[in-house]
Amino acid sequence: MSIVPPAPPSLQELRKEIDSIDEQVHGLLMQRGDIIDRLISVKQTQEVGSAFRPAREAEMMRRLVQRHRGILPIDTVESIWRVIIATFTYVQAPFSVHADLSLGESAMRDSARFHFGFTVPYVAHFSAAAAVEAVAKSKGDLALVSATSSRTPWWIELESQGAPKIIARLPFIERADHPAALPVFVVSRVADSAMVTEVEMWSVRVSGWNAEIARALSPLAEIVAVPDTAFDGAALLISITGTTSLDKIKSALIEAGASVRSSALVGSHATRYTVTANGTPRS
Length: 283
Prior knowledge:
The chain is α/β, with parallel strands linked by helices. The protein contains seven helices and eleven strands.
């Protein structure tokens, strides 16, 4: 006697399942909002400035990638979670995103909208220095500036105690064809306990800078360099991970023929998380 397989569900039944899931997702988002409302009362967030928590966000995004499966692209999941996080952070303590458009508008705007959505106010500036200055005058705003190149050494304004610092680098999840692939630093003033220090950012000013010295340092760290003609040198923004150290960088500079004039810690951020084209973590 043959067994007749059960009939596949109808389109109407499947759509009812989708509607039920949508209602549950909406309900959970409202429940999250209720918890944030209680959190505001407990922490009195408005009195301490920015509610941005880079360390917590980095851990949340790591868990997101590790548990993700199925046909939904990881880019979509990342964007949904980024907007959820940014919006609820904004609800706790309103802030604006100040974007440096000096190297192009469309890519920077895409990055801002992908990571912070449309609820958070977006303010355009024509230079990194202007974006950083706006954040320095604010209570808890963020600045987005290029992480790979610059026309001016904007990071020098982060050297003094009490100044805003680099707190993140986006996108946190990196992969080929990312829809918001522009590498950007996030600059803000947040509590020291909220920082993540896997990658330290140092402002180093040198004399005697040239292309040969730049090539000598490239295997050791990521460096953004802006010429400083007044001292025949350069202002450097150096990313230092656990595999190297500031002393090692300074030694390499001196050995290559440069003179180190000054150095200052100007922030830190989480190690970037790289995934393959199909969305799985890459070791």
